[in-house]
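## tool: complex_structure
## caller: assistant
## args:
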Amino acid sequence: MTPFAREQWYVIAYAHEVGRELMARTVLGEPIVLYRTEDGKAVALADRCVHRRYPLSESALVGDTVVCGYHGFTYDTKGTCVAVPGQSRIPRTARVAAYPLVEIDGFVWIWIGDPARADETAVPRAEHLTAPGWVTVKGMEPIACDYGLLVDNLMDLSHETYLHGGYIGTPEVAETPITTEVDAEAGVVRVSRHMADAECPPFYSRSTGIDGRIRRHQDIEYFAPCLYLLHSRISPVGQDAPLFRTEITYAITPGKPGEVYDFWAVSRDFAVEDAEVTEFLAKFNHTVVMQDVTALNLLQRALDAEPAGYQELSINIDAGGLAARRMLAGLAAR
Amino acid sequence: MTPFAREQWYVIAYAHEVGRELMARTVLGEPIVLYRTEDGKAVALADRCVHRRYPLSESALVGDTVVCGYHGFTYDTKGTCVAVPGQSRIPRTARVAAYPLVEIDGFVWIWIGDPARADETAVPRAEHLTAPGWVTVKGMEPIACDYGLLVDNLMDLSHETYLHGGYIGTPEVAETPITTEVDAEAGVVRVSRHMADAECPPFYSRSTGIDGRIRRHQDIEYFAPCLYLLHSRISPVGQDAPLFRTEITYAITPGKPGEVYDFWAVSRDFAVEDAEVTEFLAKFNHTVVMQDVTALNLLQRALDAEPAGYQELSINIDAGGLAARRMLAGLAAR
Amino acid sequence: MTPFAREQWYVIAYAHEVGRELMARTVLGEPIVLYRTEDGKAVALADRCVHRRYPLSESALVGDTVVCGYHGFTYDTKGTCVAVPGQSRIPRTARVAAYPLVEIDGFVWIWIGDPARADETAVPRAEHLTAPGWVTVKGMEPIACDYGLLVDNLMDLSHETYLHGGYIGTPEVAETPITTEVDAEAGVVRVSRHMADAECPPFYSRSTGIDGRIRRHQDIEYFAPCLYLLHSRISPVGQDAPLFRTEITYAITPGKPGEVYDFWAVSRDFAVEDAEVTEFLAKFNHTVVMQDVTALNLLQRALDAEPAGYQELSINIDAGGLAARRMLAGLAAR
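## result:
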């Protein structure tokens, strides 16, 4: 299993998902309850009452406090217990963890680690998600697999040809060699695949209107552990313009061991007023994501049944994924 | 996990559940098959054939004998094997355990432990269940939780305010302090909560017809490990009569580890001819019990996912539950 | 759990099940993908891509090669990798195991063990399955039990009286003693039960037309570990002819630990043109097999819940099953 890297920011939710209903998510094995105060501020607390470990997400939100649904222990936004049943004295140790949150680019980021150290690490950015002139479609799928399998999947796009053939993959993706670059200090792995003359898959032909062959550039930036950006650039072969820019964003958030939240978004700066293109991309990319979900669920079940010490065989296309694994191991070991 | 206390009587079934169909239940991890002889006597045998461990509950009841559904090993009401296939000689060791049973108060009690010692311990009584002048509604729900969680639940009624608000709970239950008394010799824990002036919850307003505020007394007697009685007394504030008496009975029978049978009954000595009240209490209390079932299933799943050595924080309301846990630990250690 | 015996032939499929669709089965814990080449030759490869362990059974069959559905690693019928994405050099270690297969008597047999030693052991035969003058009905049911439980079941037919009463069992089966013979060198256990005057069960009365009592001979030959033959001979009491011959074949193939493939077939040399008899036997025997499946699933769950070191009590009828267990233990230990 890929080790969990603490002392890091992770996407726990889209901003629009968090509201006045209590919501449960588990990040790096920690159960968390999310909600917004009456003033609209997002709050994240440990999702277990100090009394008998009842999930606070099964509680009532009263004003800005959470009232445990079992015996009424009441917590404020800092996780401090402010009321208990049957007595006025509240034990000093009655508090649950409150998590640092940052809301930006349409994401709610949570700091898993020592809260005092949250300020030392910048939240990674995906500005195109909310920038003017860009339109985004998005979703989230939980997958029952080690989060490292999703990192592997995204770092090696040669699988587009086989798993997503007829959707986003064409023969050229698997055929074209990649270049890989590791910036250990910044914690970024970059993988590029530039196809000078490639078939145009339906994903792009139907969104851009191009009907011939294309120049297709895929430039990945993986900001370990959570944020993955694929800068996709398309233009008809033989002409430089128009250049169609698509930014494909993934936030890869480990849930429990063997579970991962797969936040996905597709942003474009063309045909931004065209609702049909928007609807097409939302549906089509969801289908593509579900192909990955199905394959990764299956792969995890296969790996779970393998005897210990099974072997992998890596080739050139795996350079990015292997670099990502080393970086994650380093972050986890710190 | 709360340890199992052997050498004790447990409710395995309501008397009306046991008949001429073989019936399987598991108590303290022991699989048991139950039936009645042609003369109406309840019988309990170990539910595994000595031959190949096939469940005898999947067998045929022929007269008063059980004929194994796989190869025909035949047992009498003492568990002695009286026939085997293909030979007339029956091995001397061919017998399954027969369990002492006592049928009383509408319950079938089973002795889990050395049968020779069953007579040393009296069967706890709940006479109101069948006494003249009382009417009872009842049921049984299996819960996928440690039986200690159900004991906790019942010993601390402050949860009525939160989990059963609008049914049996009102603010006064959680607000009013309790008194606790432990009779270690008799093996009884008593918890009392006397509310002088409280809101009347629907459970009582609709069964008694009271429409104002009430004096409400809750007096718990827990006869560890299995029998729990809640003596509930209600009267309108400011008048001593009429006094409405409700006896709420639970039998808490550990099944497999992590499973418990929750036998529940509500007995009253008022409106005993009123079928509408009977029907109301049967439905309404089932709803209340299912609120507990849902919460305890959920709590157990949450605890199962907790890292080992998780902490609880106890306050005054937990005095009864903690005393019960100590008593159960003592019984189990004997 | 009954240990697995490697270096043996096992039935992995009926010949008619293997075609131009990739098909997954697991034998002795080894995941295997099966298909036929364009020339009709059956192929069996390890069902895990060398690259990232993706199941090859989720791949595409292109000509005679298997193209992994995740990243396109391509294997020929020998398991040799002949193409990988993004590069022309193929690592020398890129190969998956190819299994020796023999197709005979309507079965596809697979050799689990060192392929170089497959020729040293003859494939057991069940010639009646495809011989002229015989008609066969057949099927396969997976059972969630230790394969040893199915061997036990088939070696001791006294269970016909109880589990299959009204179908194939009558009182005489359980009453009649057996004779057992073990040929350790040939690896065969033989169990015979000859009933001189027995009730005729529906299985035989409806297929043969006999309406009185019968002479009934059951002669089992178990060729450990996989092939079981029951030579059944029926004739009306008091006359030698006509003699109705039925060959009942089982192939017992361990899948994963705790799972077994139950291949079953009923062959007859009478009423071979009678489609109604064929249809009756197909349906009726499926019902009988499902009675075993249900019982063995149940028995395994019961055994899984037993504390370690549970006891069995064996009697004369178990002589064949115990001999089979000893033989399997010997084969596994080699």
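## assistant note: Chain C has a mean pLDDT of 96. The CA atoms of residues 189 and 324 of chain C lie 6 Å apart. Handing back to user.
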